[in-house]
Design goal:
The complex is a heterodimer.
Chain A: H1 15-43, H2 62-76, H3 81-92, H4 107-136, H5 143-157
Chain B: H1 2-25, E1 46-48, H2 51-57, E2 60-62, E3 72-77, H3 82-98, E4 104-110, H4 116-126, E5 132-135, H5 139-143, E6 151-155, E7 161-166, H6 171-181
Parallel strand pairs in B: 3-4, 4-5
Antiparallel strand pairs in B: 1-2, 3-6, 6-7
The chains are: A mainly alpha, B alpha/beta.
């Protein structure tokens, strides 16, 4: 009896086939997880239309589940995040975006905090300098008071 | 000088406090948002009609067949939605009054996955004779930008959405919007 060309495990399947199947399954699973993560990343940027203050990623209502399904389909078709967000904006407008878009009146929301921070830091710097300058200036003291302090200090030394 | 600074501080704190109180007490934000679709072409759909309408309108209702031809009233409802039960008789009575004009009423059951039996019960309860279809995967809710149910869209003869009504329709809404559609 001749030895088999490929060593078979107990199940009778060649080892290389088992390894290949495991590898392919691993790759597919990793891709699925990656796709799912992308779906949730994009869904987190969309407002759930029928629940208050929840993103499409957080909500479990049927509409949000369906929106995540649409995101997954569009990602699989090779659409970009911007294209997918634009798809939902078509029917819901900018309201559907949790982060207001960086244009028009919405720009205020993005610019005002930066302007506020700049004004605050500048004010602190100006005040700090003023206080520093004042601390270096000689202090005007009544000569009588000075004499009194000196004499009391001298008497205290005894 | 000191008194002036104190006054500024008090005014600033009072202003912030006022803003805080306003935020706390203003309640739910207004959800009667204007539809993004107003003035734009109504999104089309192909939906399977409930059996009772198949004889008149075919098994599948293709909105594209009517868009740009007939003015339309497109009503979205669900079997679990209480206000939908309030508006159904209103819609049916206006359909009966207007079905001989060229306006078409279309009902779409949405956000109600798999509830075909409940849908049939709803249609039977009110004897709705205008075509009603099931949007089982709620894709039409998303395509039409729905925030909930019921919502009713009025589409003009050119196929453009001219008005959206959130909540149950009233005779006043129907009178005004139908008159505008048929002008």
């Amino acid at each position: 009896m001749t030895a088999p060309l490929v060593k078979r495990p107990a199940s009778g399947r060649p080892v290389w086939l088992t390894v290949l199947v495991t590898l392919l399954t691993g790759v597919t699973l990793a891709q699925d997880v990656q796709l799912e993560n992308r779906v949730f990343e994009i869904a987190a940027k969309l407002r759930c239309p029928i629940c208050t203050s929840e993103s499409v990623a957080d909500s479990s209502v049927q509409l949000a589940v369906e929106m995540r399904q649409i995101i997954q389909e569009q990602l699989s078709q090779g659409r970009s995040e911007a294209e997918i967000l634009a798809f939902f904006q078509q029917s819901y407008g900018d309201w559907i975006l949790l982060d207001p878009p960086k244009r028009g009146l919405h720009l205020l929301v993005w610019i005002l905090p930066v302007v506020g921070a700049v004004i605050g830091v500048t004010a602190l710097l100006v005040l700090g300098r003023r206080w520093q300058r004042r601390s270096r200036e000689p202090i005007d003291v009544d000569p009588e008071d000075l004499a009194r302090v000196r004499s009391e200090l001298a008497s205290g030394e005894r | 000088m000191k008194a002036r600074r104190m006054l500024i501080a008090v005014v600033a704190v009072a202003a912030l406090g006022g803003l805080f109180a306003f935020g706390l007490l203003r309640g739910e934000p207004d959800r009667n948002l204007p539809s993004e679709l107003i003035g734009k072409p109504a999104p089309s759909f192909d939906l399977r009609l409930y059996e009772r309408y198949a004889g008149t309108y075919g098994e599948v209702l293709s909105l594209a067949d009517y868009l740009g031809d007939k003015p339309m009233v497109v009503n979205f409802w669900a079997s679990w939605c209480a206000p939908c039960y309030v508006e159904a008789p209103v819609l049916q009575s206006y359909w009966q009054e207007y079905q001989d004009t060229d306006v078409l009423f279309v009902g779409v059951q949405t956000q109600d996955r798999g509830k075909y039996d409940e849908g049939r019960d709803f249609l039977n309860q009110f004897g709705l004779s205008f075509p009603n279809a099931m949007d089982d995967d709620s894709r039409m809710s998303i395509g039409w930008g729905l925030l909930g149910v019921p919502e009713t869209f009025f589409v003009d003869r050119q196929g453009r959405v001219v008005h959206k009504h959130i909540g149950p329709v009233t005779p006043e809404v129907m009178e005004t919007q139908l008159a505008a559609l048929l002008e």
